[in-house]
Amino acid sequence: MIASLRGTLLERMDGACVVEAGGVGYLVQVSSHTLGELPAVGAEVRLRTRHIVREDAQLLFGFTAPEELRLFDLLIGVSGVGPKIALAALSGLQPAALARAIRDEQIATIVAVPGIGKKTAERIVVELRDKLDFIVAAGPAPAPRGRKGAGVLPQSERFDDAVAALVTLGYSAAQAQDAVRKAGVDDLELSLEDLVKRALGRLARPAALSR
What we know:
Protein name: Holliday junction branch migration complex subunit RuvA
Number of strands: 5
Mean pLDDT: 81
Pfam families: HHH_5, RuvA_C, RuvA_N
Keywords: Cytoplasm, DNA damage, DNA recombination, DNA repair, DNA-binding
Subcellular location: Cytoplasm
CATH superfamily of the largest domain: 5' to 3' exonuclease, C-terminal subdomain
GO molecular function: ATP binding; four-way junction DNA binding; four-way junction helicase activity
């Protein structure tokens, strides 16, 4: 089992990097968050890793942040969530934001990750919402969950989470930010799920008009 890897960063690519250690080049799959934390090519890098062995492949996943690795371990322990889907979730949202989405039962945000359906998202929430104190404690305080606005986050968090959900669907950050602003992010009675739906509706309009 490979628990960590230290060596020279030989190459970085979309969703992966190559690290040379002891004369061997290791292909390591990483989230967009970890990819952004990597040093320049040619510099020394150290990654915490998970080595997953299958009948047809050996996969190595790398993380710069310990909380990202712990969240990855929790995610792949959920039925229906494999390492590729777990990495996709961690690429779509920062660890604290993903933990917040799970804790606050933001199903729409989780479903926005490619490969995660509603039932899987619900399983993730049920199985993990009480296991994320190691991340939540370092993040923003939970939003009050009243009756009418249940699940509604403070404006800044709602904006970030809605944008992240749209980015995981393939929209650029600029497109997502513009759509969320125009969808009514200032309306604090609007749930995150409805905010994302409204934003998607705005993004779909140009395509519909061009037909």
